[in-house]
Each structure stands twice: as C-alpha cells, then as structure tokens.
Amino acid sequence: MNPSASTQTLGVVGLGSMGWGAAVSALRRGITTWGSDTRSDVLERFAAAGGHVASTPAELAAHCDVVIILVVNAAQTEDVLFGNGALAQHLKSGSVVVASATVDPSLPPQWAAQLAERGIGFIDGPVSGGARKAADGQMTIMASGSADAFAAAGELLDAIAGKVYRLGDQPGIGSTVKMINQHLAGVHIAAACEAMALGMRAGADPRQLYDVICNSAGMSWMFQNRVPHILDGDYTPLSSVNIFVKDLGLVLDAARRLAFPLPLAAAAHQLYLATAAAGHGGEDDAAVIKFYAAIAGLVYRLGDQPGIGSTVKMINQHLAGVHIAAACEAMALGMRAGADPRQLYDVICNSAGMSWMFQNRVPHILDGDYTPLSSVNIFVKDLGLVLDAARRLAFPLPLAAAAHQLYLATAAAGHGGEDDAAVIKFYAAIAGLELPAAP
C-alpha cells in the first residue's frame, strides 16, 4: 500500500522562486513541510507561513520522508546531498530524494547509485512552469526513477504539481526531457527578442506586433510570456539571462558528447553570452533585446506608413521559420539522447518550450508524413526575404540566418518539396537517426 501524502512529511531544500512555491502549495494541502535555505529572512517568512524550518539540509533530513532539492545547478545539488549539506548522510533508509535542478543528464544516474547504497530512493525530477504555477501547485515535474521510488513519493509529488510526467525507470530521462525543453525555451526567447527588435527597426508598433504574433503561427509560450517585459521596460528577473547562459551551455555540452550539431542552440547561446557580457546577466532573460538595441539603435514609429502589414507578416515568418527549425533540432537531439519522441512531444506541448509550430509540425514527424502543407522551399524563400530586408536595414539576425541555412541544407539534400518539418531529415542524415515511418 502506497503512503498517503497527508501522512508524509516533505522537505524542500532551496526556498527560491520554485522551491518557495512548492513548499507553500504543500502547506496549503495540509502536508507537513520542512524548509531549508541559506537565507535567514526566507526561513523566517516560511515559518510565518506555517512551515517548519531547518538551518541545514542535515537538520531537515531527520524529519522528512521525501526531500525535493530545488537549487540552481548540479554543483549545489551535489553539495546538498554529499557535501556540506550532508543530506544523504542523515536521511533515514526508505526515504526518497527528488533532484529538481536543470542538470546534465549524465549526473542523476550517479546520484541514484550513491543514494541506493544508503537505502535511499531517488527520482530525477526537474520542474517547469515558473514561480506562479509552483505557488499554485500547478508546476510540471518531468520525472524518472524506480517503481519503488514513485510508490513512496508519487502521491506527494502529485499533491504539489499540476502534472507529474512519469517518463521511465531510469534516472537521467527526466533531465534529458528538461534539457530539450530548455533548448526550445532558450531559442524561443532569443528568437522573440530578435524578431521584436527587427520589427521595431523596420517601423512596426511593438504592441500591435505582439498582438498579431500572439494570434498567428509565429506564437510561442515564451513570446507570449516574455515580450510584455520588453513592452513594459521591466527587466526584473523572473528567470535571468545567466540562467540560459548555464542551461544552453548544458544542452551544448550534452550534444557535444553525442557528437550532435545544434546550430540554433549555439547561436542563441552566443546571444545570451553577449547580453551577459554587456552587463545584463542578472536581468530578465528578455533583456537579450538590449543586445540588438545596443548594436542597432532601435527607433520605432507608429504603424501608419505603407508596407507595415508586410513588415508584420515578415516578423511572423521569421518566428515561424525559426520555431519549426528549432522543433526539428530539439526533437532530433531528444531522439539521439534516447528520449521517447511521443512522450517528449506531450511534455513540451504542456511546458515553456511550446510553440504553435512545435504543436502543429511535430506530429508530421511522429507520423512519418511529410506531405507538404507548407514546404521546405517556402522557408528557403521566406527567410531569404527576411534576411534581405534585414540586410537593407543593416540589422543582424543570427537565429534567422542559422535557420535559413538548415532549410537550404534540407532542400539541397532533395527534400525541398516536402513538408517543412522535413528539416529533421537533415539531422537524421548526419547523425544516423531512425525517424518514425509512415504507417
């Protein structure tokens, strides 16, 4: 018989934006919850909210059946578990650790093995959804681990999350899926900044542009969520530029070990690095637009001049083209890393990495059906027009340029007349991927 969440005690190590949300949502559900953080003011606030506080993870360990570690990175996770935090040393046998930082997928299997030697279960459980969803108990957990670990911790995780994806019994699968989500989220934010900057440079009204794109094929979850920060001039970090310096760095490191090319992720990573180097690393990730502003000088006019409709359509095609190519790149990386493509599609469609084009085009890949609704050649043409317009404005478009090269390469390989999702065949050809076949 599985334990009931109402009789278990949860520990949360790291009461940052996501950890705080998880902890307070557990309290609202009547779950006895302990919290540990390095900041005394946060612990005082958590105690005032009804939580129990521990000054160290080791102190927290003695009280908890399940501990979720919501820190920034792998180094902090390892320190909590096996270093100064000494969590593993003080947890009782039969308890379960859920590691939720975005980390290299090769690390969770190592942590699971070390904890198993102490009789402690492990779930590789990175999270998505942002602070607000976490506080509402609606965050997403991308989880993998043994049946025993889920039996011990599953009800509690279900109580604090809107959706827990159980992706398999091997630690590392959860982190692989999170890596793909971060690939897409990172590329989509950078693409949103690039496209909005181009639109402003070309004379479009940014608020009109935002409204149109949110109702067009160029839409992504990140465009919808982050562009308002630009429109309001508010770069208070909900997630900072530095987070994507780290997370896209992890994606590129993993791809390098797999000898797998990621031209779009690499171009986006350079944009985050350039933005951080200019002093904006601690600002909201939408501050990537400041890179474009600094080098191109953004001045926009109200949209009453001739050609503005075509300008808005150009921006939509920029985003649609980049998003399709990014969907193909991310799905190919996921398959190369061993993720189940249908599971991956389901998770991304309910996470921050979603775009209209991902939702619409990836089923063509999953069904092996490349009957053209819109062909590769269309984006050879349309992104070519976008790049021509940008050249006349002396405006750089590194993401659109990288995506255009992918469409050109796919067309050169004989797939120009196929559906634009056939860009994945470029990756399959050079990396030896077996793509789903048509029934």
Question: How would you briefly describe this protein structure?
Answer:
With 439 residues, this protein is α/β, with parallel strands linked by helices.
Can you walk me through this structure?
It is a single chain. With 439 residues, this protein is of the alpha/beta class. The chain folds into two domains: 5-171, 3-Layer(aba) Sandwich (Rossmann fold); 176-431, Orthogonal Bundle (N-(1-d-carboxylethyl)-l-norvaline Dehydrogenase, domain 2). It contains 20 helices and nine strands. Strands 1, 2, 3, 4, 5, 6, 7, 8 and 9 form a nine-stranded mixed β-sheet that branches. Helix 15 (308-336) crosses helix 18. The longest helix is centred in the middle third of the chain and has 29 residues, at 173-201.
Keywords:
single chain; 439 residues; Rossmann fold; N-(1-d-carboxylethyl)-l-norvaline Dehydrogenase, domain 2
Outline the fold blueprint.
Blueprint: E1 9-13, H1 17-28, E2 32-36, H2 40-48, E3 52-54, H3 57-61, E4 66-69, H4 74-82, H5 87-90, E5 96-99, H6 107-116, E6 121-124, E7 127-128, H7 130-135, E8 139-145, H8 147-160, E9 161-166, H9 173-201, H10 206-213, H11 221-232, H12 241-257, H13 263-280, H14 288-296, H15 308-336, H16 341-349, H17 356-366, H18 376-392, H19 398-415, H20 423-431
Parallel strand pairs: 1-2, 1-4, 2-3, 4-5, 5-6, 8-9
Antiparallel strand pairs: 6-8, 7-8
